Each structure stands twice: as C-alpha cells, then as structure tokens.
Amino acid sequence: MTAGHVADGSTAEHDLLVGADGIDSLVRRTLWGDAPKREHRLHVFGGFTLTGVPGTQPNMSVLTHSATVQGSWTSIRHKGRDGHQGWMLAATDPDAPAPDDLRAAAAALAAEFPAPLPGLIEATDPANVQRWVLRDRPRLKQWGKGRATLVGDAAHPTSPYAAYGAGMSIEDGYFLGRALRGVDLTDLAAVRSALQAYEDPRKPHTAHQVQQAWMLGKVFHHTPALLRPLREQLALIED
User: Which contacts qualify for 200-208: CB closer than 8 Å, 24 or more apart?
Assistant: First the structure.
C-alpha cells in the first residue's frame, strides 16, 4: 500500500498512486526531489468571449504568425453556448512583472493582425483574460517508484508549441490502463513491472515532443532579426 497525508491531517492508503498534478507536481517532487524549471522566455495572453464578433465562424480555428508574435483564435463551446477563444504568444522576460492590464497587452499584440482577432480580443471581458509564462522541466530518467507513477505534465511538462500536451496526457492514461489491465494490485512486484512497462516506451516519445516544442518556440520567437528571412524561406519550402 502507498500512504498519503491530506491537508486536514488525515491519511489515505491505496494500492496505486498516479501523479497527475501538473508541472508543479507534489507527487513528482516527493518521488524525485525538485528540479528547476526551464524558461522558454515566452508568455501567452488568452481569453474567451461568447459575444458574436464579425469575421469569426463556428467550427473554425486559425493560427497566424507575424515575424515575432503568434496570434490565433478558435471557436469553442462554453456551458452549452457557442463562443470564441483568442490568444497571443510572444517573447518575454520571465522575471518581469505581469502587465497591469492583460487585455490591453493582448490587444496591443493583436493590433498587427487581420480581423477578426483584434475585435475578438476587444470583445473579451478583462475578467476572462489570463496570462501564462511558458516553462517546462528537465527530462526524468525514471517516472515511477514502488506503487507510484506520473502522467501528463507531472511527468513531461511541455509548452503549447507541441500542440500536444493534453494529447500526451490522454495517451499516458490509455497506456497506463493497458499496462495495469488484469494486474493484481496487491502484488507489489506485478505493479512495479506494469508501471515500468507503461513508462519505458512513453519516455523517449514524450521527451522528443517536449524538446521539439521548446525548439519551435525558439525558432518562432527568438530567431535574430538578420536570420528571420531565412527562417521564412525555410517555412515556405516546408509548406
């Protein structure tokens, strides 16, 4: 059995513990100690509105880039209602304080993009705008220990440039379930073997995706100005 202490002072014992508690995972830190986050020197302003904005369409997602900024929007459903989400991604100093007005900061970045993105940002209630500073953590050589393992951002936090963070988490759950299918959870050796069989093929795949996301962020937002024309030509060739 694995035991855990709860905030109210109680304890709980279970046959298996799965840490799915994000980039600041307490389970990961308890198993393997702390590790510094890697700064991507990028931040995202994102928000949503249920107000109709001219130029937006349902069931559509548009990702665009200037030389230094990503500006994107997508249709969403929120509590049974149609709406749209917009976000702006740009380079930043992670040690700098957040802007006082997040929507104004997003609107300033959106001003260089075509409609409907500027109007969508303008229509968003300031209370529905958030800011995220992008970070990940060093690759773990081992995820699980004993009766505990990790999934999702607890195991392999990534930036949105993978467009795959939620997808990898879902995959982790699927493959963990497959590995544990039919396993006697009271048998420690069997549990350890199943957890190892789950993580071994996942580690190289997720590490590759995390690193690729980090590299894409550098290419799009930290390429020196003199090299940007070359970057654009390479992008056209790939398209």
Answer: 201/175, 202/143, 202/155, 202/171, 202/172, 202/175, 203/139, 203/140, 203/143, 206/155, 206/156, 206/158, 206/168, 207/139, 207/156
